[in-house]
């Protein structure tokens, strides 16, 4: 695999795994161990730039927690030993990136909608301690849509105790543009409130993507609102 493909091919399958997938990311400056909590490809947003093909059915209808944790154990051991960097996919990884940087909860949909979200966060944190990866971050990549749910709040508190980091997407400054880009029925005001409330308790990273839509960039009004 060329250096370019190493950083651009982030497919969510690896070997025989169903839920755990490794990627090397320039952003993370190391190996990011992804956890797909939405293998059914169900998401409560329908962003116009999403690369997940939701027109095709998934052959994995739900998360098998025991299988996920088994895959994570194996990945921890594989990565810590350095054997992962002997595989065809990762053998071109630069030496300074040959480190486990984070465990990233993401996948083919919004991870916080997983019904056992706090339980899986807790179980993964326990495994991280078991493998003496105390300095490895636990990153939640999220659209922030259900931060106001009780079980999600519990999950965020567990993240706080385990080198947690939240990356929340925010692609708009107005309700009108939000509907165009993220195509969600939720109110934009609720999304802003969710992000603000969570950010009052811990640091939060905002991820935004602004693009031409029908060959037109965001209006000046939209840019000023953002």
Distance between the termini: 39 Å
The side-by-side strand order for the widest beta sheet comes to 1-2-3-4-5-6
Class of secondary structure makeup: alpha/beta
Task: Supply the number of helical segments.
Answer: 7
Q: What's the β-strand tally? A: 6
For the CA atoms, what is the radius of gyration? Answer: 18 Å
Describe the main β-sheet briefly: 6 strands, mixed
Classify the beta-strand content into a percent band. 15-25%
Global mean pLDDT:
90
Give unreliable regions as ranges: 6-12
Write down the overall geometry. Answer: globular
- Helical content stands at 25-40%
Order of helices and strands: HEEHEHEHEHHEH
Features:
226 residues; alpha/beta; 7 helices
Describe what you observe in this structure.
There is one protein chain. This protein has 226 residues and is of the alpha/beta class. 32% of the residues lie in helices and 15% in strands. The chain has helices at residues 3-8, 65-81, 117-130, 150-160, 175-181, 188-199, 220-225; strands at 20-25, 30-36, 100-106, 137-142, 164-169, 205-207. It has a six-stranded mixed β-sheet with strand order 1-2-3-4-5-6. Strand 2 (30-36), helix 2 and strand 3 (100-106) form a beta-alpha-beta unit. It is globular and about 50 Å long. It starts with a helix and ends with a helix.
């Amino acid at each position: 695999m060329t250096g370019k493909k190493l950083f651009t091919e982030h497919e969510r399958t690896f070997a025989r795994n169903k839920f755990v997938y490794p990627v090397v990311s320039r952003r993370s400056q190391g190996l990011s161990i992804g956890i797909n909590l939405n293998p059914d490809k169900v998401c409560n947003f329908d962003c116009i730039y999403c690369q997940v093909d939701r027109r095709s059915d998934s052959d994995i209808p739900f998360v098998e927690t025991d299988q996920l944790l088994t895959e994570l154990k194996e990945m921890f051991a594989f990565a810590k030993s350095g054997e992962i960097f002997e595989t065809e996919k990762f053998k071109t990884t630069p030496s300074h990136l040959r480190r486990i940087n984070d465990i990233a909860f993401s996948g083919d949909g919004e991870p916080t909608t997983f019904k056992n979200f706090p339980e899986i966060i807790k179980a993964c944190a326990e495994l991280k301690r078991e493998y003496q990866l105390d300095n490895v971050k636990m990153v939640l990549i999220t659209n922030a849509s259900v931060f106001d749910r009780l079980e999600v709040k519990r999950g965020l508190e567990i993240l706080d105790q385990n080198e947690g980091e939240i990356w929340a997407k925010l692609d708009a400054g107005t309700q009108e543009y939000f509907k165009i880009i993220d195509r969600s029925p939720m109110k934009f005001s609720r999304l802003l409130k969710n992000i603000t409330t969570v950010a009052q308790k811990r640091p939060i990273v905002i991820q935004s993507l602004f693009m031409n839509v029908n060959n037109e960039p965001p209006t000046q009004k939209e840019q000023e609102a953002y």
